[in-house]
Amino acid sequence: MSEKRSNFPLPLSSVTGAGTRKPAAPAPVATPQTATQNARTSQVQTRQAPPPAPRPVAPGTPQPVQPQQTMQRSELAATEAPRRAMAAYVARLGVKDGQVLAALETVPRHMFIESALSSQAYADVSLPIGHNQTISQPYIVARMIELLRGSGQPLRRVLEIGTGCGYQAAVLSCVAQEVYSIERIKPLHELAKANLRPLRIANLRLQYGDGMLGLPQVAPFDGIILAAAGLEVPRALLEQLAIGARLVAPVGAQVQHLQRITRIGKSEWTSETLEACHFVPLRPGIV
Ligand code: SAH
User: Fold this and answer.
1) Mutual angle of helices 167-175 and 98-106, in 10-degree steps
2) Where is this region: Disordered (predicted)?
């Protein structure tokens, strides 16, 4: 891990520091037996209370996901063991934040992927969601949110760039008071809306647009997460961080590393280059 202090804009060199690649971990085998075993060893003890409703927002800001149908209780119960096993597996990979692990255990990942792939819903793998995009691997979702939370202080307003199917946004909504998520591909924005509707998440707002521009009408944010990798972090996003807030992003092209940037003053940011990762590219404009 390297730590750098720099004035805005962050230099490209800040993305090329050392980072150690996490050894590829085998996907967990989610048999009922191992799921029960994992559940017993899971560090997850508690479930989060539902977060408070977000403050009223000005006209022109993204609208909340409207509940239209609720999720079947039986469907949730049926996936409880694999969800626990997945969270326990991610804990074994090194994610320590109990609230993040609890969030991972809470969100039904199978609801974000097409049914043909549902047997892999609770394996620690990324999966295709259409339009050449993927749902991220649960480990990296958890790790990025853990990095965003740092020493575990509550997150108030968080922005995600790259909604995709909406999974990470749902996990974020368990650990932050208000979550905003932007997607540039219209059919994926619609897919995320449809996936999230049955979950009735009151503190999550989806926006169709170019996330590289951020959401200035809602800024400043206490945290920003990018789910797609650019060669550098867009300037607009750095400017939309509150002072003291963090941004976590994959940075690079063929070789990518997670980068955590903290805004420490009006025009001062620090940057840490962390583990290697692999994300789809961050692209400008809308489709
Ligand atoms: N958050 C997702 C991962 C989605 S994959 C999850 O829960 O697993 C990354 C997404 O970023 C893709 O859907 C892609 O279309 C989107 N993306 C790339 N560039 C973007 C941009 N400039 N603004 C918004 N979304 C972007």
Assistant:
1) 130
2) 1-79
Can you tell me the distance from the alpha carbon of 54 to that of 57, in angstroms, rounded to the nearest whole number?
8
CA of residue 53 to ligand 1 center, whole Å: 25
> 8 phi and psi, to 5 degrees?
-65, 145
Question: At a CB cut-off of 8 Å and minimum separation 6, what does 62 contact?
Answer: 180, 205, 206, 207, 215, 218
pLDDT band at 70 (very low <50, low <70, confident <90, very high): low
Residue recorded with tokens 């009223």: 56
Instruction: Give 171-224 pLDDT, tens digit per residue.
Output: 999 999 999 999 999 999 999 999 999 999 999 999 999 999 999 999 999 999
Length of the chain counted residue by residue: 287
Tell whether omega for the bond before 50 is within 30 degrees of 0, i.e. cis. no
Q: Residues 201, 253: contact at Cβ < 8 Å?
A: no
| Residue 230 DSSP one-character state | B
Crossing angle, helix 80-92 and helix 32-41, to 10 degrees?
60
136 is catalytic: yes
Residue 143's H or E segment, with its range, is: helix 138-149
d(CA 133, CA 279): 9
71, amino acid identity: M
Nearest C-alpha to atom 21 of ligand 1 is from which residue?
211
Tell the burial category of 74 from Cβ atoms under 10 Å away from its Cβ (0-12, 13-18, 19+). Answer: exposed
Quote the pLDDT of residue 24: 36
- Confidence category of residue 61, pLDDT binned at 50, 70, 90: low
Using a 6 Å cutoff on CB, does residue 263 contact ligand 1? no
Tokens standing for residue 145: 């949110």
Which listed residue (14, 42, 136, 181) is catalytic? 136
pTM: 0.80
Using one digit for the tens of pLDDT, what is the confidence trace for 112-150? Answer: 999 999 999 999 999 999 999 999 999 999 999 999 999
CB 130 within 8 A of CB 112: no
